[in-house]
């Protein structure tokens, strides 16, 4: 019913429409058994490795603290550690450096000597929440209001400009122009570049850093490092192994929890702990957030279980009763439900109360009201979709999208993440959170649009016929609209939602940086999850699974 992110596909003998909904394979079945991927990396917990690693990190921290006289060197260093996904070790040093850089640059109105330096400085400062004005690029604009064509000969500058353009907020025309100009130039130059430079340009065009998943891109970036890194790559390799062992331990915890719960109570539910864990690992990337990832994964498992109840098992009358029970959040309200629904609601009720109690113990706030509302909102949206199917009614595109934002499950994942992170929880902030602000609704919209965009490219004719889709409804409402035009329209909507996300941490600052990062990471996961190749497989995601849980760096 919903287009929740689905990493594994288990065929079910059910209606043709429902089978089509389940056919959105997001990881091949070779990853069904998570234990297959658990390899022996316990040696990287050895104290000697940890001590050597800590010593090298200390040396590099010292390096960053002592480059204030060379702003470009410091900017390049920060860019490198970000791309290698080890920047979490350097938070204080990065903040101190960028604070100095911002004060100096803003006071003098000068952010660099050339295009590549200005674009890099602009991007790094904006990524860390400094509201650098887009007019820093004015000096590269000609009398016609366009970027000087001569800049196109500077490939490094074009790549940096393209990266910077993805940090735009609504209304920044100059950054829209920057993105179009740099993209056009780089695509034109690409056939004439050597192999190494061509690879760099392709990565920039296909995976701009701000919208890409650093955890996945780190290995791709490592092959392009040069002598300036002076050992950073080796630090990243050891760090990767240490973090990988943490993820493997967490996945084992989840697998054991699910065996204990699912085997006894939720026998009808899908057995896909890797599927659920991948999502929490993608949202909460800091290695220190181990307990938070495990708890979030438990909640994610119920998204899939309830999704199956609405898609496969429940009649419309039963779904009405189940939705009413979730809205009431009352154990006594399940009396008239079929047994499998009673079991599911009781398990969800117990888990949500357990998580709420842990948050209260750790952070002094009981989030039960906010958490139960997210489950109610999702079930209400699922029920709307069930009624559309039962009645044969086709919703308007905007109506479908508005409901799809709630049925996407993003609200559940992000609201749970907010309370599990536990930073700066206040009554005012919780009230904002309960109203589904853009820091949540934008990722939810992105999920829905990426999913429907992937579905519109499917070669499965049954799926195209039966599956609800914003692309489909938009074409129906706009007579003569081609699939290409509809897809282009959706991509423009995706671009707009990213601008809204950028605006959240540049201007609004309603939530702590850790939660904003979680929202961004959720959004960065989506292209990885929904990019299909010509064989309808997900090569990037399959590589990501093997990389993080099985393969070497």
What can you see in these coordinates?
The two termini are 38 Å apart. α6 (155-165) packs across α7, α10 packs across α12 (290-313) and α21 (470-477) crosses α22. Helices cover 66% and strands 0% of the residues. It has 2 domains: 46-230, Terpene synthase, N-terminal domain (Glycosyltransferase); 237-549, Farnesyl Diphosphate Synthase. It has 24 helices and no strands. It has helices at 16-22, 47-65, 71-83, 91-108, 115-127, 155-165, 173-189, 195-206, 214-222, 232-262, 273-283, 290-313, 316-328, 339-363, 368-391, 397-407, 410-421, 427-434, 438-456, 461-466, 470-477, 483-508, 513-530, 539-549. It is mainly α and 553 residues long.
How many domains, as an integer?
2
Q: Mean of the pLDDT scores? A: 85
Instruction: Please summarize the sheet with the most strands.
Output: none
Oligomer: single chain
Total beta-strand segments: 0
CATH class of the largest domain: Mainly Alpha
Which structural category fits the helices and strands? mainly alpha
**CATH H level, superfamily name of the largest domain:** Farnesyl Diphosphate Synthase
The total of helices stands at: 24
Helix content: 55-70%
What is the helix/strand order?
HHHHHHHHHHHHHHHHHHHHHHHH
How large, in whole angstroms, is the Cα Rg?
24 Å
Poorly predicted runs of 5 or more residues: 1-44, 459-466, 532-537
What fraction strand? under 5%
Q: Shape, please? A: globular
CATH architecture of the largest domain: Orthogonal Bundle
CATH topology of the largest domain: Farnesyl Diphosphate Synthase
Q: What separation lies between the terminal Cα atoms?
A: 38 Å
